[in-house]
Amino acid sequence: MNRGLSRQLRFLPAALILIVLSAAIAACGATRGGREARGGGIANFSTDVVEQKVEVVAAPTGEFKWTQPEYRANAGDVTFVVSNPSFVNHNFSVQGSGVFAESEEFGENQTRNYTLKGLQPGEYRIVCTVPGHEEGGMVSKLIVT
Fold this sequence. Notes:
Layout: H1 3-28, E1 53-57, E2 70-73, E3 76-84, E4 93-96, E5 99-102, E6 110-119, E7 122-127, E8 139-144
Parallel strand pairs: 1-3, 2-8
Antiparallel strand pairs: 3-6, 4-5, 4-7, 7-8
């Protein structure tokens, strides 16, 4: 066997292991359903329902938008009451200021409660991250004072 080829084949198992580990790490960063925190922020919605509630409704026509371009809340614990009167599946995500929380998809005529605890003052985005929905305009502003 050629000496140069022998040397290259000796490193092949290590290179394959490196490729597999890189792919596994990348896949872990692509989780959905509120399991990933970006910027060290809040990673999951709580199932608790708190006094402060913000109602968020998907467009009943099936358009990729929320019914309001802007929502407001006071700092602290907030329950988002999210309704989907449309025939299109959506999800609910709050992003910004070190926060990334995302729900699973939910279907037609469903209402879900998603609570964030200790939400700090700042500007956030309310987004549907179902593929194509954010790009289609399903993004609103959340202002927390």
